[in-house]
Amino acid sequence: MTMTTKKQKLTKAEIRIAIAKDVIAQIKAKKYKPTQGTWVADENQSYDQWLYDNALDCKVDVRDYTNNIKKCNVCALGSLFVSAVNKYNNVYGTYWSVSAEEVFNIDNEYSESPLLRYFTLNQLQLIEFTFERGLGVIGLEDDHPMVEKANAFFLKYSKSKDRLVAIMKNIIKNKGTFKP
Q: Which among 91, 92, 119 is positioned nearest to 106, based on CA atoms?
């Protein structure tokens, strides 16, 4: 008689930790190159250009792009996006539903952003602000209580790679929550 075990369902916090660990592993494997101001762009084609070419008016599985990345430039949210899609998501969409513009449209309450499946809007804003130092697509208001800590974190890690690894280690250390 064979024993079968029911697959344990992970909490959102456990999924965030697993995604952060995957980002670190991909950086160590030199698959991800942390780069300020870049969403996701592999050596051949950016994610949005691939979507435009392949999914302008029809649905595609986003993993057709993310699984085939050999090496790519990513920002903090781009790295979370690629790792989340590869590990947990069945993300299907058209250019109009899963382009960077739509994925980053996370402050819209109707957003279909795959990032919002696991991270809160506040966490995504804080991560992006800390990595980009306020120059990213989304960020924090000047009066947000974490701006000072996020700026200090940014200054502590002057290299993009070191900063992104530190952000991911912070997420792991804090049980799925980024706390600069």
A: 119
Amino acid at 119: F
Q: How far apart are CA 111 and CA 119, in angstroms?
A: 13
Taking alpha carbons only, the member of 43, 76, 79, 42 closest to residue 157 is 76
Q: How many distinct structural domains can be found in the chain?
A: 1
φ and ψ at residue 92, rounded to 5 degrees: -120, 140
- In single-letter form, the type of residue at position 104 comes to F
**Euclidean distance between CA atoms 113 and 98, whole angstroms:** 7
Tokens of 48: 């949005």
Print pLDDT tens along the chain (180 aa): 444 444 568 999 999 999 999 999 999 999 999 999 888 888 888 887 887 887 766 777 778 888 888 899 999 998 998 999 888 877 766 665 666 666 655 555 556 677 888 898 889 888 988 998 866 555 556 666 778 888 899 999 999 999 999 999 999 999 999 999
Cα(43)–Cα(162) distance, rounded to whole angstroms?
22
In a domain, 179, yes or no: no
Query: Looking at the domain assignment, is residue 154 inside a domain?
Result: yes
**CB-based contact 63:91 (threshold 8 Å):** yes
> Domain range holding 68?
12-45+62-92+114-173
Radius of gyration for the alpha carbons in the chain, expressed in angstroms and rounded = 16
